[in-house]
Predict the structure of L-lactate permease.
Amino acid sequence: MANPRLIGALVTLLLIALFIGWLWRAAGDATRNQVERQNNEAAKNSDDARSGFDACPVGLWDFASGRCKRP
């Protein structure tokens, strides 16, 4: 027959392990959300830059400044 103190210790260790697993997963979700937001912002900036390049007349794009040199 199992000792009640042993069973209590095992249950306590199980609860601690479950809490640590939940905490680990929650931290991973926050990190993934942050990376996704950064990726979306980078994509938006890239699209904006490409639109500016496409709208600039041929030969007037200044690659050093990343802008159109309109007369």
Remarks:
- The longest helix spans residues 4-55.
